[in-house]
Amino acid sequence: MSSATPSPVPSSAHGHHKRHSILPAVSQSGPKPPVQFSSSCTIADSALLTGPHTIIVSTESVIHPRARLESLGGRVTVGRRCIVHERACLGAADLQGRYHKGSPDKEGRSMGAVTLGDYVTVEVGAQVESGGTVIGEGTTVGIGTRVGAGAVVGKHCTLTANSTVAAGEVIPDYTVIYSNGLRRIDKRGVSDLKNKAQARQIDVLRRMIPSNPGKFQ
Amino acid sequence: MFGNNRLPAFHPGLTQSRIRDTTTGSGLWFPGLRSPPLPSESDPANDQLPLPITQEDLYDTPMAPFNPYTYIRCPCSELNPYTKRTPDVTAQGLSRAAQDDDDHTFDPRAARSNYSLYPLEYLSFCEDCHQIRCPRCVAEEIVCYYCPNCLFEVPSSNIRSEGSRCTRSCFQCPICTGPLAVNHVETPPDPNQLLSPDHASSSHSGSYILSCSYCNWSSTEIGIKFDKPNSIHMQLAKLRNGGETRLTAKERKERRKEQASQGAGGGSSTGQGEEDLDTLLDMETQFANLKSFYQNQLSDANGTGKVGGDPSAALGNLGFDAPASLSRIMSLYTGSSSLHDKKSKSRPGTMREALAPSEGLQLASLDESSAITALQDFESTTGLDAYSSTASTTQLQSQAPYLGASPLHGLTRFTSSLRPIPYLLRTKRSKRCPQCRHIISKPESKVTTTRFRIRLIAGNYIPTITIKQLIIPGLTPPPMPNLPPDTIEPLKPAQFVLTFKNPIFESVRVTLATPATTPGRFPAKVTILCPQFEIDSNTDVWEEALKDNNATSSSSQSQNLSSSTGPEGSGPGGRKRAGTLRPGTAGGASLAGEELGPEVGKVWERGRNWTSIVIEVIPASLVQTAKRDGRGPIKEDEDVLEIPMFVRIEWEAEAPEDEIMPGLSSAKGGNKDGGKEKRELAYWCVLGLGRVARTL
């Protein structure tokens, strides 16, 4: 139960030429978290879900193989039509290895570790630290980006590759973080187009990634 | 040199410290990367001994690992390599670094030598002169011009007429210099506009825009849209920021011709007085107006008669300035005719300056209140954040010259006035030796191939030197604890293994020389244990494999046997092995009990085409010397141990056949080997061994 082999049931498209990855087999270690999956979400078999708190994945979201969702610091909520790519980590520890808990909000409720809005894309290798981190709707967290604990990223932002958001930072809506920490406002007005494109991409991904939500429930 | 993106960034002369070892473990550069002076150094009144020093005291940022390097000095930096010069004659008189006199050694820390030292990968070799050539002394010629974005080769005739930028659809984002892509936008039709009879709107309603995929900038932010997805450069020249159209040079000429043909001849002069003096002219229009105005003035001033009219008009196009010089030159040719002289003198040439914008006059508006209010009320009028809307200096400097801008006014510093940057064209260049004009490197003229037709690099002619610290488990004393890695302890002997690898197909004899102490503020004592040795030729790998199978480690007879039967002999003479011995073999006086250690006069190890020797260094103490000599704290990279070394290589090469007199070479040669020419090459190089620890 804890050590799963990394070979999901191949779909008809693969045939007998399936190439196995040279990376070591991922194994599900640690406590199995309580989950709330929507019926239409896609969770790959080799995704890694750990932690004592709940992990929520909403309608039509896609979790790629080898993505990590860690609820060691609190609850992890993935919104609707989100895509979490390989090796991305939601609820990661910070650079010193600590899992932040996050201060409770005004009503006294716990903020949870990581909250993703709708239509969010978390690219390959991105690390979203736990501790009340909020990623707004439509935001793209770029490849290798690190979002600090407790940061609040606005809607429809673009964090380009390898950028950093400091802990606790508040990023306004429609911000583009590029180059060495430079910021500018995105004035293209293409949010609707991006959402439509994301929906189309999710359609394709749902056919390509074999989903196995039963493994985690 | 061979594709700038392949070699690491090396800028000779950029800083005094060549060792820009700026990579730490995480790959980021920290501004405080160099080691700071010790606390006791900054306070000169403090004469107390420092407390026991740990690594945290010495370096408060993690020290980058030091990679030993070898830099070779190109002989082009010698002032006059053929005559000896005294130091007083040199211009600077600072140091005698550049001279290659036998009395003067090479100082790698002199400011001047920084410009002549290069790693081996940067150097080429001229086969005719048998000399090293560096990027500074080669002469470059351009093979072809191409755009780095679309890889389209631009013929050199176009460069003169259209400039050195791409004239197709290749642009860089003005904000982040990333490549711009042409995107189609579907604008929903405006219902109000559809009803109105004329669709004439100030903003150009096109359906293509340029957008940056990195910083998400698009040309809609400056109000520019295009009709067609190709030849963007041409469409962009006709558009201003904000969407207003602009006339190009050709269109303006056509309009002027139409006006001249339509309007009455006299009507234009009366219309000038009513022209608005404040109309803004852009650069191209102003220049064109001025030029035509002056041409008219010249032709008017020199008479409308046949004799004076035609030649002066023709000469006016050539650009002769004042009518006085024109008449002077004309009188040279027609000096005999006094009638003509009187004519030209009587008309002094009344020329006036431009009086109106149509003639090229542009008044500077001294009232800058509009520009000031635009700056002050920017946030309230546009609703944008003023700081992020201000263009940075780099963004302004990377802009291409725009002929539609008005030079005196209209140059704002806002990002809304930035324009997409056409890509600068790049060149493929061939290099020639400056003395014998032999081609050293020549790339293919086809843009997409990266091969070279001719490529003579120094790495194929000069032995490569690699450096490694020698640590023998039983013999080398253990280092001090808490010592940073790759540092050398002062006042203790340290040994380094230098491996010389021979690239050519002849065996070479190498002679090394180095001053007994290194130049600079902290002299170290250097001893080369084996200054003269041979390196075998670079033969096939199979030769060595055959040799290992046939022979034991110390017998030389089988080596000769295998070399003669091998497919590629090292030369008719075979290998010369005079004066070199392996460690531990009988034949050299080896002291009892020291057979494992390096011995004087013997090579450390040898292989198929390489030889290793040992050098020993005793660095000076940094801290105590710095306190005593009063020259201030230890500067950046002054603690690096650098050894200048003089390398002389001798080898025998095939003598070139003399085609004119075929019998001459054999008569000249007279060697037993028959037609072999002795060649030698000598150069200075600098070995960077490591940093000296600041413990003493």
Automatic annotation (TrEMBL), chain A:
Highest taxon in the source lineage: Eukaryota
Compartment list: Cytoplasm, Cytoskeleton
Keyword tRNA-binding in annotation: no
Primary site of residence: cytoplasm
Entry's family note: Belongs to the dynactin subunits 5/6 family. Dynactin subunit 6 subfamily.
Function: Part of the dynactin complex that activates the molecular motor dynein for ultra-processive transport along microtubules.
Name of the protein in its database record: Dynactin subunit 6
Organism: Neurospora tetrasperma (strain FGSC 2508 / ATCC MYA-4615 / P0657)
Source species taxonomy: Eukaryota, Fungi, Dikarya, Ascomycota, Pezizomycotina
Automatic annotation (TrEMBL), chain B:
Biased amino acid composition, Low complexity: 553-567
Species of the source: Neurospora tetrasperma (strain FGSC 2508 / ATCC MYA-4615 / P0657)
InterPro entries: DCTN4
Keyword Isomerase annotated: no
Biased amino acid composition, Basic and acidic residues: 241-259
Disordered as annotated region, ranges: 1-50, 237-275, 549-593
Keywords per UniProt: Acetylation, Coiled coil, Cytoplasm, Cytoskeleton, Isopeptide bond, Phosphoprotein, Ubl conjugation
Similarity field: Belongs to the dynactin subunit 4 family.
The keyword Acetylation appears for this protein: yes
Protein name: Dynactin subunit 4
Primary site of residence: cytoplasm
Gene Ontology CC terms, in alphabetical order: dynactin complex; stress fiber
Signal sequence extent: none
Subcellular compartments: Cytoplasm, Cytoskeleton, Microtubule organizing center, Centrosome; Cytoplasm, Cytoskeleton, Stress fiber; Cytoplasm, Myofibril
Compositional bias per record (Polar residues), positions renumbered to this chain: 14-26
Complex formation: Subunit of dynactin, a multiprotein complex part of a tripartite complex with dynein and a adapter, such as BICDL1, BICD2 or HOOK3. The dynactin complex is built around ACTR1A/ACTB filament and consists of an actin-related filament composed of a shoulder domain, a pointed end and a barbed end. Its length is defined by its flexible shoulder domain. The soulder is composed of 2 DCTN1 subunits, 4 DCTN2 and 2 DCTN3. The 4 DCNT2 (via N-terminus) bind the ACTR1A filament and act as molecular rulers to determine the length. The pointed end is important for binding dynein-dynactin cargo adapters.
Pfam families, A to Z: Dynactin_p62
